[in-house]
Amino acid sequence: MTAPVLQVAGLSVEYGTRAGPAFAVTDVSFAVAPGRRLGLVGESGSGKSTTVLALMRLLRQGRIAAGSARLEGRELTALPDAAFRAIRFARMALVPQGAMSSLNPVLRIAEQIGDLYEDHGVRHGRAERRAAIGSLLGRVGLGAEVQDRFPHQLSGGMKQRVCIAMAIALGPALILADEPTSALDVMVQKQVMATLGRVQADTGAGLVLIGHDMALMAHFVDDLGVMYAGRIVEKGPVRRLFAAPRHPYTRMLVDSLPSFRLRGVFRGIPGVAPTLLARIEGCPFHPRCPMALARCRTEAPVLRPALDEGGHVAACHRAEEVAA
Ligand code: SF4
């Protein structure tokens, strides 16, 4: 079996707030193999973006409170800042949520990609640098002339492709994509995801895709982790999670997708996600769960294999009864 490029074990992340620590991510574990795509899905505040920003060491106020994250066998949480900067983008790259706010508005694209090369010791002559950047932009479907433009001269989809180009510029082993199409219209979303999928397949990198769009996940990823209140409540091969979810929250997410079969019926998820300012007793989903039992209020379920194994695990006392 191929060794995972990323192995996260028991990761917990906290934010300091005036009201005390907010437990944004609690005891999260997952692994990504080279060439595989893992999706992390959940509502706003479920901890999915915090997880990848913590891995990239890009959290402004949050801190990793516990756990381990190994990239190509190397422990990230203990790495000194200088060593971490050397692997960021070189071995593990981020495609950010908002290309508009990620690109520097006063620098041409060539300068921004050039800075990335310079920061990692990639030296080129002038003509060679132009050719390298032109070729890189070509890999994401952009013309070489785009390097002479400022971000405001590009459409949203073009800017996001530039961010993808920057993510693959140094040939990383892992790409973290944090809702890369959230600000784009549907047609452009499709094109950008096709570009991301193509370059990921070309490079053989592992990929973690953060999002809340279950339909997009169904088409794009191999494995899926469902996050709720900072925890992974179910994970496994994406087809198994859609065909036979074992956690009521996953079941409700799948059922909330528009369907030709159920015309006119829209099934949302009632209630709101819990505050992260207090440790939740019992199952974090119990106030919203239609299947909750008395024990769910006091006894926290742990991830355990679902009936049909195959790497499918769910954290629910009634996993076996969650209907397909
Ligand atoms: Fe619902 Fe109980 Fe399962 Fe939590 S453990 S998801 S409250 S049935």
Can you describe this structure?
With 324 residues, the chain is α/β, with parallel strands linked by helices. The chain has ten helices and twelve strands. The strands form two sheets. It has an eight-stranded mixed beta sheet, sandwiched between helices. Strands 2-1-4-5 form a four-stranded antiparallel beta sheet, covered by helices on one side. A hairpin with a 2-residue loop joins strand 1 (6-17) and strand 2. The longest helix has 18 residues, at 186-203. The two termini are 30 Å apart. Iron/sulfur cluster binds next to loops.
Structural class: alpha/beta
Main β-sheet description: 8 strands, mixed
Query: What is the CATH domain class?
Result: Alpha Beta
Radius of gyration: 21 Å
Helix percentage range? 25-40%
Principal-axis shape equals globular
Compute the number of structural domains.
1
- CATH architectural label: 3-Layer(aba) Sandwich
State mean pLDDT (0 to 100 scale). Answer: 92
CATH topology, which one? Rossmann fold
SSE layout:
Blueprint: E1 6-17, E2 20-32, E3 37-41, H1 48-55, E4 62-71, E5 74-75, H2 81-87, E6 92-95, H3 99-102, H4 109-119, H5 126-139, H6 156-168, E7 174-178, H7 186-203, E8 206-211, H8 214-220, E9 223-228, E10 231-237, H9 238-243, H10 248-255, E11 304-305, E12 313-314
Parallel strand pairs: 3-8, 3-9, 6-7, 7-8
Antiparallel strand pairs: 1-2, 1-4, 4-5, 9-10, 10-12, 11-12
Helix pairs in contact: 6-7
The protein binds iron/sulfur cluster.
